[in-house]
Write a structure and sequence with these properties.
Blueprint (H helix, E strand, L loop, with lengths): L2 H31 L5 H29 L2 H20 L4 H29 L5 H25 L7 H19 L13 H4 L3 H32 L3 H28 L3 H21 L5 H25 L6 H29 L4 H29 L2
Protein name: UMF1 family MFS transporter
Subcellular location: Endomembrane system
Keywords: Membrane, Transmembrane, Transmembrane helix
Length: about 375
């Protein structure tokens, strides 16, 4: 396999481990357990860093496209993430830890923008979906490994920071040292404001906002749903999520290959969005035996969605606007990740955290991919596809 493709795909492994270990599990725990902080210290710092990352991403995206610097900025972001992870492992007070994490998360979000944007320069027209799927699949291997690490190191979460830095370096440094390509400077004749007036692009972003809201809902609340509705223990929850991860690993490159040679990825996403709606309905009526099948289906849907979204964005975008458009796409995804927890929280609070409230929350979330489906149809009509 081409060393550029492999080193690029390995970054997906590194960033998934980082996201799972630092953002989702261990750093919030360290804030409370080791530094005597509160959960709101983490949530406020994380939210503020996302706001800064959105604006920095928009500015850097246009600058990088204009000067052909997106690969360099991507590599600088990798170095920043590793260095800040090491610094975080030596943090000895709450303020210092939060400050380092603030910069660390901005660096991480920036790396993701340019990681996705580089796919256009890395691939050819006949293999772009497969390469995208390869990255997603390798990333989910990292996700499964993160589950194992989480299960084995719950008693000493502080030690995981340096361990995560080492794992991140092993799998991201191939991109740092081996990923090489010529990225030309581009003639820029657009403003960020003009992008939002592009009706076709705007319809795509809005439809994907509703889709990613549904995806974030599954990622964030599946473990809680399994525990509350089916009374699953931690081991059973991990089994379902790990099964979903395994199917994601297998299906991502396979679906990418199909969309390179048989199916049109732009048209295919329309049906994947619709399958999300039916997946939510199946989750509501599922039982503790069928839930393993439903989990596998969600793994396929998540992998398919992440595989095709960046491919479609590349296909509908001029090359001189690519990083800027990925920055807007990233901002949309971040805002979508806020909506699911808000809706879930309101419904479960209103109905006293009952099983009924969990199923009602899933039913309400199922509406979002349905809305996304109709808007995506409008996008296809506007695109003339």
């Amino acid at each position: 396999m081409n060393k550029n493709i492999l080193s690029w795909a390995l970054f997906d492994f590194a960033e998934t481990i980082f996201s799972a270990n630092i953002i989702s599990v261990f750093f919030p725990l360290i804030i409370v357990s080791y530094f005597g902080g509160k959960s709101y210290h983490y949530s406020f710092t994380y939210s503020l860093s996302i706001v800064f990352a959105i604006f920095i991403g928009l500015i850097l995206g246009k600058f990088a496209d204009k000067h052909g610097l997106k690969l360099k900025i991507f590599k600088i972001s990798i170095l920043a993430i590793f260095s800040l992870l090491v610094a975080l492992s030596f943090a000895n007070n709450l303020i210092y830890a939060l400050f380092i994490f603030f910069i660390l998360n901005i660096s991480y979000q920036t790396a993701l923008i340019f990681y996705n944007s580089i796919l256009n320069n890395l691939s050819k027209k006949n293999n772009i979906s497969f390469i995208s799927g390869l990255g997603v699949g390798i990333g989910y291997i990292g996700g499964i490994l993160a589950l194992v690490i989480t299960n084995l190191t719950q008693k000493e979460p502080h030690n995981i920071l340096m361990f995560t830095a080492i794992i991140f370096a092993i799998f991201s440094f191939p991109s740092l040292f081996l990923l090489k390509m010529d990225i030309p400077k581009l003639n820029m004749n657009f403003s960020l404001k003009s992008l939002l007036k592009d009706k076709t692009f705007l319809l795509f972003i809005i439809s994907i906002f509703f889709l990613t809201d549904a995806i974030h809902g599954v990622i964030i609340f599946m473990s809680l749903y399994l525990h509350k509705v089916f009374a699953f223990e931690t081991g059973q929850v991990i089994s379902v999520i790990a099964l979903a991860g395994i199917f994601a690993v297998i299906s991502a490159p396979f679906i990418g290959k199909l969309c390179d040679y048989i199916f049109n990825p732009i048209k295919s996403l329309k049906y994947i969005i619709l399958f999300w709606f039916f997946g939510f309905l199946a989750l509501i009526i599922s039982n503790k035996y069928l839930i393993y099948i439903i989990g596998a289906i969600f793994g396929i849907l998540i992998a398919s969605s992440w595989t095709l979204l960046r491919v479609i964005l590349i296909k509908i975008s001029p090359s001189e606007q690519l990083s800027s458009r990925f920055a807007i796409f990233s901002a949309s995804s971040k805002f979508a990740s806020i909506l699911s927890p808000l809706i879930w929280g309101i419904i479960t609070y209103t109905f006293n955290d009952s099983i009924f409230s969990y199923k009602l929350s899933v039913l309400v979330l199922s509406v979002f991919p349905l809305i996304g489906f109709f808007i995506y149809n409008k996008f296809l009509e506007n695109l003339g596809t």
